[in-house]
Amino acid sequence: MSRIEREVVEPREKARSVDKAQLVHYYQQMLAIRRMEEALAKAYALRKFGGFLHLYIGQEAVAVGAIAALKPEDYVIATYREHAHAYAKGMAAKQIIAEMYGKETGCSKGLGGSMHLFDAPRNFLGGYGIVGGHIPIAAGTAYASKYRGDGRVTLCFFGDGSVAQGAFHEGVALAALWRLPVVFICENNLYSMGTPLYRSLSVTDVSQKALGYGIARDRFDGEDVLRVRDRIGEAVRRARNESMPTLVEIRTYRFRGHSMSDAGLYRTKEEVEEWKKRDPVGFGRALLEKANVPEAEIAAIEAKVKEEIEEAVQFAEDSPELAYERLAEFTYKE
Amino acid sequence: MPTVAYREALNQAMAEEMERDDRIFLMGEEVGHYNGAYKVSKGLLDKFGEKRVIDTPIAEGGFVGVGIGAAMVGLRPIIELMTWNFSLVAADQLINNAAKIRQMSGGQFTLPVVFRGPGGSAHQLAAQHSQSTEALWAHIPGLKVVMPANPKDAKGLLKSAIRDDNPIVFIEGEVMYGDQGEIPEGEYTIPLGVAEVKRQGKDLTIIGWSKMVKLALQVAEQLAPEGIDIEVVDPRTIRPLDEALLVQSVKKTGRCLILEEGWPFNGVGAEIAYRIGKACFDDLDAPVERLTGADMPMPYNHHLEAMCVPDAARTIAAVKRVLYLE
Ligand SMILES: Cc1ncc(C[n+]2csc(CCOP(=O)(O)OP(=O)(O)O)c2C)c(N)n1
């Protein structure tokens, strides 16, 4: 779990822009994601809803930073660990939490749940439960963008576990062959369920997979939201302007188990504690402090986030469920 | 007789067989160091070591293919799918290779390999994680499909599956791993292709497998005080199907209800209903009835999910329809 040295095809880490409003925005988003997931964990423990719940806690800077590099019309597609990506793409906490509660007011009408958040108006193309299965879909949406010449970019998020799947290789191979405007982002949190990276990949530098397909690659640590934004920004530019795909590996860490039913006993306490020192939310707060944002202003952001999440939970609690009679509408379009 | 959990019965079957025959190995995601996603392989890594209990990356098409290759040249792999939902990633290996190699090679290669893992819906896992795939696999000639309904069957059938010289699709009940049940003491096997009458009755036959056996037995007990005497028959092996015992039961009762968790269209129940209809045409007092899962992907919402799989209330209503009581 050593820190990765910077290694990039086109090494151009720009001087950090320190636009205060942006910093506030990123911090607000990361904090809201953190608080939302803490609220979800609590509701899950109280059996407010069931199913799998995979928390993203510890990885917030990746979703927030990467999606900050996009325009609203760009596409995002993700795995089952997608609450943060949905939120960063603009989905309201209300819609996310209501979906977990299985309510009609949820983003997928309560039919998708934690693993299948979708938001068509915001170009969030969903969370998927089959590891690697969505990667070729990202090539498909990028194909459509190139076909139409609409200048949109697709960001595709997946875990290190996906990299052993055939679908990963087939999706990347086609994107490379046809030079599609897509950025593949491997959120390498060093474990797929209970399996450490070195037992699931023979080459643990995931970005090297790009070499075999002749596309650009990048690789860096993911606790700093600005670094993520800027480096993904380059990949997005490359996709948009040159129609060149990039495979990006971002090293990060999930503080919790794989899902709520996993205690994570395969990792040492020391390892988890070590990573917690690089908490992206804490890092985001430190950026605010460095930019001389007054403590009172930060406290106000925190209070606002707290309120937002409490309201969203209440909204989910109070929302109705879809009637059984309406279910059939969603299998086929009439 | 000792009482064990369903998962423990499966564990015993693998441990005993691996003890007996060193050509057998277990391979799959999280089967070793993590002791299995559902703890079915608990302790096997400690017992048999890393050569025979192998953790794989998430690469179903890959390691299912590895199982097929190893079986072709003399090993006897047990390949665990974390759930059968993920077997669909390996459908090409299962359908185009496992099921066909023996026939394509004119019988030169046999494939003694068991693919096993949990199937069916669990709780609120939504569409991609709540599927009954037995109808898919049973559709494919060259595969055998086994679905144990209790710990005794789980152990006896898995041992037979491991000893069988064909590719076996062995589907466990995802929500049944904790189920307790008595198993015979010592060594025993249950032959593939042999159904079992799980409850004797004279008024109506319910045919169901896996989780549906439990439901059928529960409904039978619930209706007994009303004077409705239900016979419950569990095929245990979907393919080959023990048509004789199913027919024998329906000839006795004259009425038949099939319970299936999966989808109705081209389902296993459709095949069974055809066979019963044909063989029992003169003995039936009512058309063969089916109660299946809803004809749609599984919704996440808890209440809608419950509406989409057979339950006691709808089973009772179906029983009464078949008995012309309603
Ligand atoms: C095809 C398939 N196989 C297995 C699973 C079960 N499963 C779900 S998540 C997971 C681990 C994935 O790890 P990784 O890709 O590293 O993502 P992370 O959970 O770390 O974000 C596994 C094995 C699945 N959902 N799909």
Explained architecture:
The complex is a heterodimer of chains A (334) and B (326). Helices cover 42% and strands 12% of the residues of chain A. The N terminus of chain A is likely disordered. In chain A, helix 1 packs antiparallel against helix 10. In chain A, the strands form two sheets. In chain A, strands 1-8-9-5-4-2-3 form a seven-stranded mixed sheet, sandwiched between helices. With 334 residues, chain A is α/β, with parallel strands linked by helices. Chain A is built from eleven helices and nine strands. Chain A starts with 6 loop residues before the first strand and ends in a 16-residue tail after the last helix. Chain B has 326 residues and is an alpha/beta fold. Chain B is built from twelve helices and 14 strands. In chain B, the strands form three sheets. Chain B has a seven-stranded mixed sheet with strand order 3-2-4-5-7-6-12, sandwiched between helices. Chain B has a five-stranded mixed sheet with strand order 9-11-10-13-14, with helices on both faces. In chain B, helix 9 crosses helix 10. The radius of gyration of chain B is 20 Å and the shape is globular. The mean pLDDT of chain B is 98. The interface between A and B is large, with 40 and 35 residues.
